[in-house]
Structures are given as structure tokens and as C-alpha cells.
Please model this.
Amino acid sequence: MIRLIISGANGYFGSIACQYFEDKGWQVLKACRQDNADIWCDLDSPEQFAKLTIDSHVDLFIHAAAAHEVTCREQPYRSIYQNVVGTKAALDFCVKNNIEHFIYLSTFHVFGHPKGEINESTEPLPVNDYGLSHLQAEQYVQMYTREGKIKGMVIRPSNFFGIPVDLDKFGRWTLVPLAFCREAIETHKIVLKTPGLQKRNFVSVNDICRVIENSYVLIEKIPLLHIYGVNTISIRGLAELVQNVMINNFNNKVELVIPNNIYSSYFPQRNEFTYTSKYLKEIYEPRGRIENFIVDFVDLFKGIKSVE
Model:
């Protein structure tokens, strides 16, 4: 049995990942600051976390605790501290407890405004605190690996999606696929703030977990891994996809509201890009499709709303 720790275990990614690995028969220890924590982990108190000791052997630590993009924008100083110093604390915790393998959940957004083909050799060029703080955290993982303190891997998934484990406690409604679904159900409209020409690549959380499951034993060979999904689609295309699912699968009409074309010149289409990897195909090629997720999530959310 593989024993692993997941930090941020009650977060959007972390809670789905805990469920995934438990279903695989792994023993999962939850590191978070909620009452169900197996290990107390508060990124506002990194020194306390770094000094903790545990009695049991652990094979792998997945560090998924971080301030997300909205928090980074609204509370930049605290968020940078959590993302960078919090990652160092997680690394020190692993060193103190002889946890050899460490995987850091970074983000595609270290590339800022993506252009052309982007793989593990592409230089990151972050444009905000969210991307930069993740890049700085990556460098801590790389430094600890160079110094032989841990065997670390940085993974950079694109924008991920997955059915929340507990929708009542879910708080990430700023994530576009979920926000569009919720808006379509509650208001029968999807209102875009821009013409929606910017593109995103989407990968399922379960696919990310499958990649981790298959790759963590390869950490020494692959210290940096990009994880892309099947779908690269514009924000407007995603809204239209939700609109089509609502009418075709649930017989509900949804109005799509797009800013008047007169303003489109202020929001030019972003450069075309392909998010790819030099290694991923040899490990596991993601299969989760965003349209299947939309159908499943709308079905779940509509059921909950009808009960209410």
C-alpha cells in the first residue's frame, strides 16, 4: 500500500485527488486546516507546519495547497507568502520526516500570455502574482532536488475541471466551466465580460491524478511535466458549449450575452498556442472531455437546485 499526503486536501483539486487515490487503495493523509485534517497545515503559519513530525512512513507528498488566482489578485502579499514560503515549509516538512518523493502542483499560468508551442523547455514569463509565485515555488522544489534533500517533480496542469466532492462547501465559482453552468441554470443566461476570444486548454482532475499515479516513480527522470487536456477552446466557445448542452440534453434555453462588437477592438484575440509535453504521451494521455463534464455537472447541479 502506498501512503501519501495531500496538502490542501479540502480544496477543489485536493478533495477530488483524495477521493481518487483512496479509490485506488492508497492510504491518504489529509494535510489542511479544517477539522478533518490528519496533519495540521496552515500556510499562514508555515514554520509550525515545517516543524511537525509524524510517526508513520510516507511514500509521496503532493503539495496542492496554494492561494488561487482570485486570492492572489485580492490579497497579493498574503498570497505570495502562502505560495512561496508555504512551499518551502512543505519541503522542510518532508525533509524532517524523511519523505523522499515530492510533487508540486504548479500551473500553466506561469507562461502569462502563451504563444506558439509550449513544452517543458519553454521559458516561463508570468504576468501576475499568481503565475510568478508559482514559478518561485517551483524553483524551491528544484533547489531542494539539486541539493539531494528530496526527489521532486513539478507538474504544470492547464485549467482543470472536475465534479466537486462536496458542492455545499464548494467555493470556487470563479472557475469558468463551473461558473457558466451555474449561471445558465440559475439565470438562464451566460454573460461574458469580454468577447471571449481568449483560448484555454482544459484537463480533468482525474486525468491529472492518473498522470501522478503513473509518473511519481519517474520523478528522478522527469523533474518537470506539463499536463494538457483534450480540449483547447475559447471562452466564448465554452459558453456556447454550455448553451448547447442545456438545450440538447436538458431542453432549457440559455441566452448568451456578449459585449457589443463595437468594443471588440479593446479585446483582440490572443496569440494561438499549443500546450504540449515532451514526456506525457509516454506516461498517460488525458482523455477527459469538457463537454462530458458539463453534462454531468449540470445534471448534478440541477438536481440539487430542484431539491432546494
User: Anything to note?
Assistant: The chain has ten helices and 14 strands. The chain has two domains: 3-161+201-229, 171-199+232-271+288-307.
